[in-house]
Design brief:
Layout (H helix, E strand, L loop, with lengths): L1 H14 L12 E2 L12 E8 L3 E10 L4 E11 L2 H4 L3 H19 L8 E5 L3 E5 L2 E4 L16 H12 L7 E4 L1 H10 L5 E7 L3 E8 L12 E5 L17 H8 L8 H6 L1 H17 L20 H8 L4 H11 L6 H36 L5 E8 L1 H5 L3 H12 L3 E7 L3 H24 L1
Parallel strand pairs: 2-5, 5-8, 9-12, 12-13
Antiparallel strand pairs: 1-11, 2-3, 3-4, 6-7, 9-10, 10-11
Length: 436
Amino acid sequence: KEVSARLKRDLIRGLGKHSHHRAAVKMLPTFVRATPDGTEKGDYLALDLGGTNFRVLHVRVVEEQQRVLKMDSKICAIPQEIMLGTGEQLFDHIAACLSEFLDSQDLKGQTLPLGFTFSFPCEQKEIDKSILIRWTKGFNCSGVEGRDVVQLLKEAIRRRGDYDIGSVAMVNDTVGTMMSCGYRDQSCEIGMIIGTGTNACYMEEMKNVKRVEGEAGRMCINTEWGGFGDDGSLRDIQTEFDVVVDQTSINPGVHTFEKMISGMYLGEIVRLLLVKLTEDKLLFNGQTSEALLTPGSFETKFISEIEEEGTGLENGQNILTELGVKWDPVDVRVVRLVCDTISSRSARLCAAALATIANRIRVNRGLDHLKTTVGVDGTVYRKHPNFSEELQDTVRLLVPKCSISFLVSEDGSGKGAAMVTAVAQRLALQSSMLTS
């Protein structure tokens, strides 16, 4: 309840016109102004760039079936020299791969709208205008930071001159997660990812989005809740293990909440705990091993394997043997308890944050009771044997006035990106019909 209340204060701070620049929870406007209404249809392209590979997809939205179909897709590698070269080289490479894909699909003659999932820190100015703040994840292309990535993509396509694209919508992967569920379930107004990292988005009332002109309607807000606590507000619940994980990470002091929750860090928290218990002579007869003392050696997937119903203890024995420690049956059970404690804490912290958002939507709309759906993605949510159950139980406990359904998203950064584009197109068409 305390964590939930602190996040509530931070959401309000992040939305404020004058307080947002020093807020830990950034609350970024996405310029996505509606969720699907079920009338969207047609063919779309999607581009998904978030790491060393990128994907190009052809997506068809079929109104009769209320389904988003992936017609085909292609994965293109991004070589190291392009990741570290010029922005022009990068976007020429993307435009070339898109060209090959369109050829293979016989789509060269059509001008299809495109959804672009670009998973780097950006400041979005409009649905089709997004400025790269800084490169992350090993990219460092010159001449892109501070520029509009949509413009750079369009210029690269223009340089080729062998095809054209229609309107472009920039998509954050969390928003894509919400939108890819929103066609199947039109009450889906929250998106959440709990995988390598964690984040959430939701539909906020425009009158509360002080950084964007206009009072009417709603806009999807990308909370960037991974940064919750970056101002020190969670210091009292951070353990000594969280502090070590933060200090030894590539971005100390940043993404405090994410480091207590997401898959990139859970295994390391468990490892540090096991080392401490061993040094305190409570595990493995007080004998560590080289592997156990190596950062990153206890993978997050081990947690899921050890907590698996039925096979968990056997999996635990195999993992501990791999790690070179001398275990007895009690040790294996203690290790399972440690895993359970850490994954359970993660689920409950996540639930506290989700409860804050659900309750905000309820209060925003003046409802006694809110029924809503969360589109969810991420390996921790999908793969851990009891994470989703614990998350849902805790949310129910914290916000009894909200009934929340959970839908696992299908390809938010591909299909979801196409859906964002489809909705943006529908809204543009509606407003041009109103003005004419």
